[in-house]
């Protein structure tokens, strides 16, 4: 059983496993045999039954006993600076769940911390909560969104850890094969949808000065072949792909506006040769231009 409880991990029972600790909550997994709710019958006509969360009630009792401030002072008379002392404890647990599963990514490097990222699923397999993943971000790579959605579903398949990993690996292998094969069996239109990124510029292009980013590079290049009028206003939507060339250049300098691939062939050739710094370039197939290693790393 996966629960989310509030406040402190020190009060949790010994047979628990903390999954994620935050400033105001704990995600914790408990055995299925662990008591969850107790229903108490009442003589009150309007409330014949009262449901009590066992983990929440016990944790609240333990916090009250261990963390109550019995010397809390409250000013009652500002003129004489008179205080009264009383016991105070404003820390309470609230229990959410239980949930079917919680998926947490692991760091690629030992000792390196990750930003808060997790996916939580209800007992019926629906998504209860999602934090930090690209699947919810606007303008993010469609490839990454589809990949993450497929992987999340795969985590719910199988009856053992080995079967779960096999299910996830099958999904991951499929999308890696797409990238390693350079989308050989995919129409160009579908490929463009998968690998293009979309960023909106909140300010006018001229307001960014000497700043560098993929969206700024895209906007400048759009101005080159479409004219300055196209990029003069704030809110410009920049759709782009990342090219392999110029090799060794930062990603910000390898952003190619998607619109160039809809331009006339002569215009497309001229600007791609210029931006890729390849005057003798003859192959203008998108698969030759793309930085496939970049997209594999993003996945």
Automatic annotation (TrEMBL):
What are the names of the required cofactors?
Answer: [4Fe-4S] cluster
Q: Which reaction does it catalyse?
A: DNA(n) + a 2'-deoxyribonucleoside 5'-triphosphate = DNA(n+1) + diphosphate
Write one Gene Ontology MF term: single-stranded DNA 3'-5' DNA exonuclease activity
The Enzyme Commission number assigned here is: 2.7.7.7
Task: Tell whether 4Fe-4S is among the UniProt keywords.
Answer: yes
What UniProt keywords apply to this chain's record, in alphabetical order? 4Fe-4S, DNA replication, DNA-binding, DNA-directed DNA polymerase, Iron, Iron-sulfur, Metal-binding, Nucleotidyltransferase, Nucleus, Transferase, Zinc, Zinc-finger
Q: Which is a GO BP term held by this UniProt record?
A: leading strand elongation
Annotated DNA polymerase epsilon ,catalytic subunit A thumb domain residues: 137-299
* Function noted in UniProt: DNA polymerase II participates in chromosomal DNA replication.
Q: Which family does it belong to?
A: Belongs to the DNA polymerase type-B family.
Concerning PANTHER family, the annotation shows: DNA POLYMERASE EPSILON CATALYTIC SUBUNIT A
Please report the name of this protein according to its UniProt entry: DNA polymerase epsilon catalytic subunit
